[in-house]
Amino acid sequence: MRPILLQGHERALTQIKYSRDGDLIFSTAKDQVICAWFSANGERLGTYHGHQGAIWTSDVDSTTTLLASGAADNTIRLWDIRTGKCLKVWDFPTAIKRVEFSEDGTKLLGVTEKRMGHLGTIVVFNIKVDVNAEQDNEPVLTITCEESKATVAGFSFLNTFIIAGHEDGSVSQYDAETGEQYIHEPIHEGHIMDLQWASDRTYLITASKDKTSKIISARDLSLLKTYVADTPLNSAAITPKKDFVILGGGQAAMDVTTTSSRQGKFEARFYHKIFEDEIGRVKGHFGPLNTVAADPQGRGYASGGEDGYVRIHHFDKSYFDFFRGHVSAGNGRVGKHRKHPGGRGMAGGQHHHRTNLDKYHPGYFGKVGMRYFHKIQGHFWKPVINLDKLWALIPTEKREAYLADKKSDTAPVLDLLPLGYSKVLGKGRIPEIPIVVKARYFSKEAERKIKEAGGVVQLVA
């Protein structure tokens, strides 16, 4: 997995965002510039100029039409992605730490800093998707965080809730329409640095200075998974195609000059989403990772660090073949072929018998695919029962009555399909009493013995 290194910023990266289709990447840094890149080859498409302070955050709407950004110049700016034109500027008394569009792009959320006597707030604006429309000046909702300031926030599924992470490590759930707080849970023991959503926005992942990352349900803020690292974490992302999460962090930037990259722990860490185990690391940055983002299409991920570089990673084929036995894993549809109709195809061949087989049976040696394509076992459902077990299927009282009166004018009727049997085999003996047996298949011997006892064989579908 060879990365593409992008050097478009002069200072530390603060956030990376993918477009919904995963074809574009937007990077923000402390150098007052937003860069747009092609994710496939790292080509820079353009830059967005206008902020007068460090840009802390950005987000792109679902149609890749509008870009929002928040900066230390106390403004949120709305941009036309195609032309780079600034469409709207909203001013605030303090810096903007996080912006995020709703799932449908009709709302924009911003998180303001707690500073100079001003409490931290979460503001929500209605957004008109048309780039020529005039945007509203005032927010439709303002949530004031009186206890601990919010550092990150976002909209849940269907714009139902606003989920916010706070400086004290707690997470809050607010009504997205009224701003009423429903739940407030202490999730972390340290500052929450990042909050990113799963593809369906029903759960989210957090990253904290307490060296843990956690997956939380958006519905009730219940804790689902915990990933423990050995360094403070700045960012976390969920991969959409495979069950992995990516964590980024490292030693604090102020201490980086005195340590090596290995001691600083500047790698991107991969954890299994279900089992919570660390499965690998990707190194490369020579400063702490400030942000990681996963491609929404599952093709790779990007990371940005204190070193000012954006690194785009495209997953190798082995990443998608990780689960053995999958069709694309090089092993066909099965892993060990036990009792499987496809077989192994006489694997091997360092012997003379392959020469003879290739001569007299060309194409037989070696695994060349399924011999029977898309075999559905239901077509071959044929549970069998032996002749000597038939009378055991008749209820006890009726069986004893028939066996006691061998000259009765009636005979028991035994339909085997509802009882879970399809074929009758001829092993064993049956009483010399007439019996009517219904089944799909009868062996020749079974048919002979039933008829010799005076019984009748009936074939049913």
Low-confidence stretches: none
CATH topology of the largest domain: Methylamine Dehydrogenase, Chain H
Radius of gyration: 34 Å
Helix count, per DSSP?
5
Which class of secondary structure composition applies to the elements? mainly beta
Rounded mean pLDDT score: 89
Count of all domains: 2
Total strands? 34
CATH superfamily of the largest domain: YVTN repeat-like/Quinoprotein amine dehydrogenase
Helix content range of the residues, please? under 10%
- The CATH class of the largest domain turns out to be Mainly Beta
Give structural notes.
The two termini are 57 Å apart. This protein folds into 2 domains: 4-320, YVTN repeat-like/Quinoprotein amine dehydrogenase (Methylamine Dehydrogenase, Chain H); 381-459, Ribosomal Protein L15, Chain: K, domain 2, CATH 3.100.10. The chain has a 4-stranded antiparallel sheet with strand order 1-28-27-26, with no helix packed on it. The protein has a 4-stranded antiparallel sheet with strand order 2-3-4-5, with no helix packed on it. It has a 4-stranded antiparallel sheet with strand order 6-7-8-9, with no helix packed on it. The chain has 5 helices and 34 strands. With 461 residues, the protein is mainly beta. It has helices at residues 261-264, 317-320, 353-360, 396-404, 444-452; strands at 4-6, 13-18, 24-29, 33-38, 44-49, 55-60, 66-71, 75-80, 86-91, 96-101, 107-112, 120-126, 141-145, 150-155, 161-166, 170-175, 181-186, 192-197, 203-208, 212-217, 223-228, 233-238, 244-249, 268-272, 278-282, 289-294, 300-305, 310-314, 384-386, 413-415, 423-425, 436-439, 441-442, 456-459. The chain is 7% helix and 39% strand.
